[in-house]
Amino acid sequence: MTDLFETKSKPVPVTKDMVREAYRKVRSNKGSAGVDEVSLQEFDGNLSKNLYKLCNRMASGSYFPMPVKEVIIPKSNGGKRKLGIPSISDRIAQEVVKSYLEPRMEAVFLPQSYGYRPHKNAHQALEQVRENVRQFAWVIDMDIKSFFDEVNHELLKKAIDKHVPEKWVKMYIRRWLEAPVQTPEGLVHKQGQGTPQGGVISPLLANLFLHYVLDKWLKKTFPAIRFVRYADDIVVHCISEKQSHYVLAGIRRRLQECQLRLSEEKTKITYCQDYRRQARKDYPGKFDFLGHTFKPMTKKSNRDNGVFLGFDCEMSMKSRTRIISDWKQMNFQRQSTWTIQDIAALLNAKTRGIINYFGKVNTFSPERLFRYLDYRIAKWVKNKYKRLNSYQKAYDWLRVIKTRYPNIFVHWSLSKI
Hints:
Strand content: 5-15%
Radius of gyration: 25 Å
Largest sheet: 4 strands, mixed
Helix content: 40-55%
Distance between the termini: 68 Å
Number of helices: 14
Structural class: alpha+beta
Number of strands: 11
């Protein structure tokens, strides 16, 4: 059966340079093997041949993707998230098309969208929300239920048709959308919906879909409100209680029209109390966004060194719990044959990432978090050195190490051990 978009009369304009550049991007992002179990290291073992074969197949229109490997990731709330991992070759092919399309899409997307876009990031999204809550007292904290699993292919193709005249691009996008998913139970074929969360091109397609489903629609339908979107994580800022209920009802109808739905248990209207706004007990007083909790908190005044009640954000309890759980799972306190340098090598990259992400917000308070990490390091000291058989002795030993080698652990620049 001939592919709907396939054209045999014209070659596909995919070049060796496009494939090489896509490979470099995929290589830098690392990632695990797909259904063929070929890792990046194995792919590199025969790199020239692998890239040559992929380039030839893409340029001739004869490239077809493998099934997507399903990986289940536990969520902090006890649920599960399904990730779809394409093979290395498929990730490179998707990167070719993504890089080809992205400049065109960037010219269309609105500034309120921050997720998975060049020169945009989560910190900018957080900063915009911080600014918005100072001006707007009401927030709709939205959660789209199973978004990546329920993206409607026909509606997505309409959005693609609006910006993509090239038949070869649409042909490959269609093949990726229709690629079956390899689950432990067997192959599952798509039924006209879904784009794998984990695919290289999925974030670009998701942004295009939500650009029309929500971004443009919100701007046109409710010009007085503000919103911030990071992929499928959306915060809408409203002027009044009445407006927030009206806008939420409109969003609910709009999503239904586009064959999406809100997660009702996770979607709520929040009242942002600060020193200018009276307390309201009939609405939630905080919401989470991008690993941070926005809530009323005491702030220092720049004018008279006093304090006032502001509405700002800090690392969420979910984020703290997840990080501590990761440290527990490392179980490094049992590695009595390791050196302290080994422990530092294990911890420092992730710790640096925590500081770089959460430390961008002025209200970041790492003391409690890193106090727990120092506790686990002290536990390792106790297990390794029998003479340091109490926590007091272990902490005293670590303080000596910190005095002599203050940079051995990244977090020691902020820790009060």
